[in-house]
Design goal:
CATH architecture of the largest domain: 4-Layer Sandwich
Shape: globular
Strand content: 25-35%
Structural class: alpha+beta
Number of strands: 32
Radius of gyration: 26 Å
Number of helices: 10
Largest sheet: 8 strands, antiparallel
CATH superfamily of the largest domain: Metallo-dependent phosphatases
Distance between the termini: 37 Å
Length: 593
């Protein structure tokens, strides 16, 4: 089970800040040190030299004060009695953390294992008081170290306090405990007897990024400029009368505006936009950019509008158009994609969809929009390859595990989109990652499956119980029915509600193949869509599967992508079609209520 405390790690350690302050070297955080080091590296080295950085170079480049901060400010806590700290380091990490030996840790003959990795155990005795530990390394080695803490005197109780980061999670080290808080399926299989029962500090793979410098620097194919680009529509409010517009410029453009008008008229309205500076410190050719969001309100139902975005003193985008939802139930259609992973193959297919289906109301992507959600260059590729289709039709996405990667949360995903803030009132479910909206006679539950399952169940039940929509759809990334991974928790918590309140279709991705099930009720096939829910999976990129076992609940499957799905609702009739990149129908279904 995942938790959004990991997102707070992202805020503490890697957040894309809007300002910079100077810190006392004695109290500098890992983030402070790395922000300053990256800035100096850009000033000192040529772009081609950034790719040659080694740990040895980094250590001679940093000041002694900075190295001290990196050796002591990664993980800190207090203990009330003398303890021994056992540090479990992945055996295959090629370079030791630079501070480990110098600080007094010694390698033992013990090993700890989980289902994937073997860890050597390093230990050090500490007196009562503050304990300060350093970074995992400069190499972004994903199986980052974890620790256990036990008393030096047998039977003595250890009280641990003042833990930093604040949302660090603690458990008991034992066989069956999980190592990474963002990977609960990865459990310990071998724990030496002397360590069992000690306090386990779980960790997050993404923390390896906090001091990443070796092989770290990237470039974007589409750097920002003073010309607005990446224009994107979303809907965070009533689709009959509102529309949200987002775009990007370089960080030198201070303000943003939208000019919009009803098509066929000359009356122009101007709406202000809020600006947010977004940072990817390792993006060497575009570290900072500004993203703008404008919320257009008071629009006419069924209205067609032209618009452009720009600033009071800068450049403007080319005009584009959008249409609001009609006030009457005249029928509508939409398109959804499975995993897109910022693929140019997906982009080539996606650009064709608007010409083939110009009537659609909006698009959706069922997670994994990109492959590494913390890399802004991948988002740049996504918008580049999409060819501007989302500046004409709103995009209503959900995050996947690649968008919310390595336990650090989906911070950059959140910065890209303005979406409804009507999700679960739980601190474990970030705003705008789970939300609901109604379009004409259809309810859409957009659920973040990377957030805790149980934290969303009551919200899902409430949305379904209070909806009078003719059609009910649920989007979430992890598919309840597939042959690769078992999502029994989702079936128990969510699919039982889909049974109770009759959700018509569920759309998912993740496993990179196409599937449409028979109507399912209580995890068994039933004869009619009126009796059960149809579960679908799709994939927006090229794919193949060597292993291809039978799935008894399947109506149709395809090994290969890319594919997209077009759904049309007209009163009580639904027409569902899946198309390949050439526009050939690969699956179709008609439901009449």
């Amino acid at each position: 089970m995942k938790s959004t405390f990991a997102f707070l790690f992202f805020v503490l350690s890697l957040s894309f800040s809007t300002c910079r302050t100077t810190s006392n070297p004695a109290t500098a955080s890992v983030k402070d040190v790395m922000d300053g080091a990256v800035t100096r590296l850009y000033q000192t080295l040529k772009p081609e030299q950034l790719d040659t950085i080694s740990q040895a170079y980094v250590l001679q480049f940093l000041t002694e004060e900075e190295k001290t901060a990196l050796a002591k400010q990664y993980l800190t806590f207090d203990v009330d009695v003398p303890v021994t700290v056992s540090l479990m380091r992945h055996q295959e990490q090629k370079v030791l953390p630079f501070w480990l030996v110098d600080s007094g840790f010694q390698k033992t003959a013990q090993v700890v294992k989980n289902e994937e990795y073997t860890y050597e155990v390093w230990q050090k005795a500490f007196p009562a008081g503050k304990i300060e530990l350093g970074i995992n390394g400069f190499d972004k080695h994903r199986p980052v170290y974890f620790i256990s803490v036990g008393p030096q005197k047998a039977g003595e109780k250890v009280t641990i306090s003042n833990v930093f980061p604040t949302h660090q999670t603690l458990d008991t080290i034992r066989v069956g405990a999980f190592t990474y808080h963002d990977w609960s399926d990865l459990t310990l299989t071998e724990v030496p007897e002397p360590l069992r029962g000690q306090t386990l500090f779980q960790t997050i793979r993404g923390r390896a990024r906090e001091a990443h410098l070796v092989g770290a620097f990237r470039k974007t194919i589409a750097p920002s400029s003073d010309q607005p680009d990446q224009v994107l529509l979303t809907m965070s409010g009533d689709p009959t009368s509102t529309m949200d517009v987002q775009w990007r410029t370089s960080s030198t453009v201070a303000d943003g505006q939208v000019k919009y008008w009803q098509t066929g008229t000359t009356d122009t309205v101007t709406a202000p936009a809020t600006a947010f500076r977004i940072e990817d410190r390792l993006l060497q050719n575009d570290r900072y950019a500004n993203r703008f969001t404008a919320n257009l309100t008071g629009l006419k139902p069924g209205g067609s509008y032209g618009y452009c975005v720009g600033s009071t003193s800068g450049k403007w985008s080319k005009p584009a158009t959008f249409k609001t939802q009609s006030a009457t139930a005249e029928g509508f259609s939409f398109i959804w994609f499975g995993d897109t992973h910022k693929s140019p193959d997906w982009g080539a297919m996606a650009r064709k969809t608007l010409a083939k289906h110009p009537e659609i109301a909006f698009y959706s992507i069922a997670g994994d929009l990109v492959s590494t959600g913390l890399h802004r260059d991948e988002w740049d590729e996504l918008w580049q390859y999409s060819g501007g289709i989302f500046e004409q039709k709103p995009l209503m996405p959900i995050p996947g595990n690649h968008d919310s990667q390595d336990g650090l949360g989906a911070g950059m995903y959140q910065e890209m989109f303005s979406l409804p803030k009507n999700g679960p009132k739980s601190p474990d479910v970030p705003a705008e990652q789970t939300y609901a909206f109604t379009y004409q006679n259809a309810l859409f539950l957009m659920i973040d499956a990377t957030s805790p399952i149980e934290a969303q169940t009551a919200w899902i039940k409430d949305q379904l119980a209070n909806s009078k929509a003719t059609w009910k759809f649920a989007f979430f990334h992890f598919p309840p029915y597939n042959f690769e991974e078992d999502y029994a928790g989702i079936r128990k918590e969510w699919c039982s509600l889909f049974d109770q309140y009759h959700v018509d279709m569920v759309m998912s991705g993740h496993v990179h193949y196409y599937l449409r099930t028979q109507p399912m009720l209580a995890e068994k096939p039933v004869s009619s869509p009126a009796q059960g829910t149809i579960y679908t999976i799709s994939i927006g990129i090229p794919s193949d599967h060597e292993v291809w076992p039978d799935e008894k609940y399947a109506v149709i499957r395809h090994k290969n992508g890319p594919l997209y799905q077009h759904l049309k609702m007209d009163g009580k009739t639904l027409v569902y079609q899946s198309f390949d990149q050439d526009g050939k129908v690969k699956d179709e279904l008609k439901i009449v209520k």
